[in-house]
Design a protein that fits this description.
Shape: globular
Strand content: 25-35%
CATH superfamily of the largest domain: Nucleotide-binding domain of ferredoxin-NADP reductase (FNR) module
Mean pLDDT: 95
Number of strands: 12
Distance between the termini: 31 Å
Radius of gyration: 19 Å
Largest sheet: 6 strands, antiparallel
Bound molecules: flavin-adenine dinucleotide
């Protein structure tokens, strides 16, 4: 059996605490008993919706409608391996009438209806979006929305364990109130002023008074250039990308889907002549 297979296991966990990060996002602190938690910052776990009795009718209905089994959903770990508890941070997906094809299945229940004491089975830990070895001198993080989750874990872990490593983060959200780990990131910058540089972009509402550079527009080429003075730095990009459904629908229509955050950042990096081997990306589409 390969090393990777051996590490993936099912664990029964108990929700030890629920922390509200933003109006739409919570962090579930998971108590795992004595199980050895063998994961890397940036790894994700999966949660199978079939285990939740409250979702049974809903899951069956969606499976009938879609003509296929609902798959486990992936959630990056917001905790770091040197922390006592495991945690995931979940943003509630919304159903928009006339726009969203099906109501989202799992995130609403995780984000809004999972009280302390809930037991669930998770499967983990895996994923390629982890810190490279040897660690780079500077890591440039470009994130949007819940795409901050694995990068936050990587940053916390690296700041504690690789004091020579620098982090530059460009992080996009609709507004400050939607910024997951906004205050925690400011605190990291305060604690590690020589290692952390933050740039926020707010697409809906400007925010003044924050001790970091803030833009009031979508992430664009100029912003990326600013955060990336050296195009040989390692770059980690995480956030909403085109889903397989959007790609398939566009292909069927013979059209090109409009790029989402991830595709547009990758296109800008290409324009800037960044070598693909310096980029890691994870799509939450
Ligand atoms: C590696 C990875 C890590 C992730 N980490 C995080 C994280 O840390 N935090 C976080 O909040 N999220 C994370 N995600 C996203 C997460 O896995 C879920 O996709 C998200 O929570 C939505 O799940 P859901 O069950 O609520 O919605 P879903 O039921 O999956 O629906 C989501 C969207 O897909 C559409 N859809 C679903 N099925 C079909 C279909 N058959 N045809 C057409 N459209 C369809 C729905 O209409 C809806 O718009 C991650 C994703 C990946 C891949």
């Amino acid at each position: 059996m390969s090393d990777k297979r051996k590490k993936i296991k099912q664990l029964e966990v108990m929700v030890a605490d629920v922390v509200e990060n933003t109006q739409e996002t919570i962090t579930l602190i998971l108590f795992t008993g004595n199980d050895l938690l063998d994961y890397k910052p940036g790894h994700f776990l999966t949660i199978d919706p079939h285990q939740f009795e409250a979702l049974e009718r809903w899951t069956n209905y969606l499976e009938d409608k879609k003509g296929k089994k609902e798959k486990p959903r992936a959630y990056s770990l917001s905790s770091a391996p040197d922390e006592k508890y495991l945690s995931i941070t979940v943003k509630e997906e919304r159903y928009t009438q006339g726009k969203t094809m099906y109501p989202p299945l799992l995130s609403p229940i995780l984000a809004k209806r999972t009280p302390k004491g809930t037991r669930m089975v998770i499967t983990g830990f895996t994923g390629p979006y982890t810190l490279i070895d040897p660690v780079p001198e500077t890591l440039v993080h470009i994130c949007a929305g819940s795409g901050i989750v694995p990068n936050y874990s990587i940053m916390k872990y690296a700041l504690r364990n690789y004091p020579e490593m620098k982090h530059r983060l460009l992080y996009s959200n609709r507004r400050w109130e939607d910024t997951i780990f906004g205050n925690e990131l400011l605190q990291l910058q305060k604690e590690f002023p020589d290692q952390v540089e933050l740039v926020f972009s707010f697409t809906r509402e400007p925010k003044s008074g924050l001790p970091v550079t803030c833009y009031n527009r979508r992430v664009d080429l100029n912003m990326i250039q600013e955060i990336l003075p050296n195009k040989n730095d390692s770059i980690y990009v995480c956030g909403p990308g085109l889903s397989v459904y959007e790609k398939k629908a566009a292909k069927k229509e013979g059209s090109k889907p409009s790029p989402r955050f991830l595709e547009s950042v990758l296109a800008d990096l290409e324009i800037l002549g960044v070598d693909k081997k310096n980029i890691k990306n994870e799509s939450y589409g």
